[in-house]
Amino acid sequence: MDETELLADRFEEHRGRLRAVAYRMLGSLPEAEDAVQETWLKLSRTDADEIRNLGGWLTTVVGRVCLDLLRSRTKRREEPIDETLSETFVPDPLIRPLTDLDPEAEVLQADSVGLALLIVLETLEPAERLTFVLHDMFAVPFDDIAPIVERTPATTRQLASRARRRVQGAAPSADPDLGRQREIVEAFLAAAREGDFDALVALLHPDVALRADSGALVRGAAASKAMRGAHAVAEQALMFAPFAHFARLALVNGSVGLVNAEEGQVLSVMGVTVADGRITEMYILSDPDRLARLDASGSVR
Known about the structure:
Structural class: alpha+beta
Oligomer: single chain
Number of domains: 2
Largest sheet: 7 strands, mixed
Strand order of the largest sheet: 1-4-5-6-7-2-3
């Protein structure tokens, strides 16, 4: 085995962490994979013998790559856009099978970042998002983050504090019990299939929020929307009742959700937030372009 192969093996040991960092930074599975690949290319052009802490070096490099991508994305969004973009955007979901393991085991296996948090992270400035993700989620010291965002460690600490306040004030609380989540989502699916409006309303929080993202080509049309209120969301669920027989339960970003898939093709993914026995948030991705890059298990094609 030559030096390049040895270095590649060492890199693979860190790939999972790097992908987790990039996904939290970008909310996009393909972009996260691209950021990880770019990190490998940078490593392959570097004298690895001079790197004392390879894991830390790779984490900061992938963070810098993601920061550049976020800044580029922000510049593109400076042009006038449909106001529904921020209201209806749903990040790429991570889909996993809902197995028969006990809830505690499922929690340990589930991805720790939910769609609700990723949506909140989208509202942060790029430097805030980087600082919050690296420090609060991956325990990277402020001294290591500061050079990436071109700030002093003290200013970097302030960025993290500001981001933390925004996240804590916006991210909805959720019931961590997967068994209880499953009961609610199964009941919701059954009510949708049966066209039971009253049952749907009973399962929804009175102020439930729905965010449906159908993609750039149809955003702004009836299928792409944000709405609030149990009656409005229940009426929307009844409109899609004919497609409910394709739905099956799955883990969507670590919580129980629904995947509509026919012959291996994902048609839509629904993530939910359950609290106090009711659904408080719903996130539906039906963007055909983005879903085409996923298979029914959530892997990127």
